[in-house]
Every structure is written in structure tokens, then in C-alpha cells.
Amino acid sequence: MTHVTPLANRRRLVIDHHDRTREFAALWLRERSPDDETRDPRTGQRLIEAAELPLDLSIETAEVHDGRLNMRFSDGHHTTFDLAALFDDPVSDPPQRLWDAASAPRPEVDFATALEEDTALSEMLEALHRHGFVIVSGVPIETDGMQPLIDRIGPLRRTNWGGIADVKSVADAYDLTMTQRGLEPHTDNPYRDPIPGYIWLHCLTNAAEGGDSTLADGFMAARLLRERDPASYDCLTRITPGFRYRDGDTHLESEGPLIELDSHGEPVRVRYSNRTERVPALPAEQLEAFYAARRAFYRLITGEELTLHLKLDPGQMLIMDNYRLLHGRSAFQLAGGVRHLRQGYVDRDSTASRRRVLRQRLANAQPHGEPA
């Protein structure tokens, strides 16, 4: 059974539907009316100016028939909602699975299969969203071998270093990634706006001694810090360092907390870049708290509890969520051979869009009654 009850001078509507109860504001229902007068039937974009609706808008009638809610508002507008759609707001993304070293997954996909089959590409993107990384095997050992798969998802993000760039030791290196030294766990480019969403790291050859990659789940680190040291967690969500990169042709600056929260108070992005961080000259008490909190976070992201070690083989590629994962590498010696990787960036919006479109397209293609 379904019951509707207007409240607050008919400016709210309480609906009891299948043992669930929700309260809706009249204005919210009016601006989301699913009819062709309110929304374009092809694009779904709103045709009315919601800010011009009367603030004292009320509900004149609300009746339920055959799973549909028929309504009339005080501005004279009539509309009909599907109750199931009204109660079951679509979930854009499934939950992410956080991991430590002991529980770390190893999601893998074949390059050629993901290039040719929507199902494989969808599985790759879902794994990337769920775990924060995925390993792609069988990538052509060519300078821009990753490009065809990038083209299946979204545009390559170009930076001051160009498109797909080398990661190898060079003389007169302009960045520490171009040296043989080990790199501490970090996120890439926190000095950019927007920060690149996904890192694509393609191995051409990896015969040098050392040079193993490390990964740590920054969201898991944030969770553990919140559980074990709430004061440090709170500090890292509030204090905002700056980040800077400069060379002869480039000057990039941005800022943001080491642990950034979403509107629900959950971590949505981590930043960590010892090489480019610039902490402002805050009052000494705040700085002392920040430095202690940063050390607590650092110990988590560098500890064996959270660190996953792996070494890419030629033809393998690692795709990483740069908002979530911290990555690094051990030092390497060229006496054993050459270490040459290629790296590119793809932004979050195009990646998320491709994932959601594929998910919906594949779900619609399933025969009725069969799970996707």
C-alpha cells in the first residue's frame, strides 16, 4: 500500500511506499517534474528556470494510481512521477573496495580484448574504480602503445611535458622522476588545477636492477588514521598546504588538504607530494599539529601494512587512480639494463563517463530477466 500525506501548509509531502517512508519538498518535486514541459524529452535537461519558482509553492493534489504519483502544484502545473524511480535514486557508482597489503587485489585485463570488446573495457573500468588500479597486459611495446586504449575512453590529458612522456633516467633531469633515485609514495601533480585523475604507466623495458613500483591505498590510510589518531585525521582534513612546480618555462601552483572530504564527510581525494609541498607559515601551534599529523599519515603510507610491491614487465601497463592511490618506486641501477617507461594522464570526468555509459549500455543489452 502507498499513502501520501501533505504537511507544512502542503509545502511538503510524506510518502509511505512498500514499508519505506520519505519526505519531499514541494519545490524539489516541482523542479524535478519528469514531464516534457519541465524537461527536454531528448536531453533530460531542465527547460524551466528553477530559481524563478515561487518559494511558497504548495501541493494542491497528490494521488497514487498503479504505482504512479499524480500531482498538481499551486502554480497550476500537473505532472506524474513513477514511484519506483522516485524512491530508488540511481546510484552513479558502486562502492569502492579499500585494501591493505594483505588483502590487495590484482585486477588484470588484456589490452587487445579491452580494445575490441565493450564487456572487457567495462570490466577494466569497473575494476579501476573499485580497487583504484588495474594492470593491463599485452600492450604493444611501442612509444605510444597505450594510445589506442586511451582513445576508447577519453582524450589524453596534455601537460607542459606534452602527451605521453618518458619516465627514464636522463642527464640534466628536470624532475626527480627522470633520475635513478627511489621515489617516496606520492600523488602526481597536486600543483595542477584540475589534478590529473588517472595515471597510465606503460613499461617498454625494465631490465635495470631495482625500480620496483609501490602502491598504497590512500583511502585505507585515511580510514586507519581516523580510527587510530582522530586528531591527526581532523588536522589533515582542515589545514591546506600549497604545492608548486617551477622550471624555465612553467610555473604551476595549487593548494588543498592532504585528505579532502566530500559533502558526506568521507575522503574523496588524497594529496601527498613531499617534493612540491609548501606549507604556509601558520601559527606555531597549528604547524606543530600539522607536522605530527603528516608524520602519522606518512608512516601509514610507507609502512609494510599498506604497501603493495610489484614490478612491471615489458608490455604491461599500470593504470592508477591519482585521487586515491599513492605510488612510488625503489632506486634502480642501470648497470643491469635499461628501465624505460612511458606515462600519460586521462582525466576523471571522461573516465567516469565512459564507465557509466558502458554499464548502462551493457545492462540494456541483457535479455530480460538475466543479470548483467
Tally the structural domains. Answer: 2
- Name of the CATH superfamily of the largest domain: Clavaminate synthase-like
Helical region count?
Answer: 9
Q: Low-confidence parts, pLDDT < 50 over ≥5 residues?
A: none
List keywords for this structure.
372 residues, alpha+beta, NE0471 N-terminal domain-like, Double-stranded beta-helix, 2 domains, seven-stranded mixed beta sheet, four-stranded antiparallel beta sheet, 25% helix, globular
Would you write up a description of this structure?
Helix 6 (218-228) packs across helix 7 and helix 6 crosses helix 8. The protein is built from nine helices and 24 strands. The protein has 372 residues and is of the alpha+beta class. The protein is globular. The protein has helices spanning 26-31, 83-87, 111-116, 118-131, 147-151, 218-228, 230-238, 284-302, 348-365, and strands at residues 2-7, 12-17, 20-25, 59-65, 68-73, 78-82, 108-110, 133-137, 156-157, 165-167, 183-186, 198-206, 209-210, 213-217, 242-246, 251-255, 259-261, 267-270, 277-278, 308-310, 317-321, 325-329, 332-333, 339-346. The relative contact order is 0.16. The protein has two domains: 2-87, NE0471 N-terminal domain-like (2-Layer Sandwich); 108-358, Double-stranded beta-helix, CATH 3.60.130.10. Strands 7, 8, 9, 10, 12, 21 and 24 form a seven-stranded mixed beta sheet that branches. 25% of the residues lie in helices and 30% in strands.
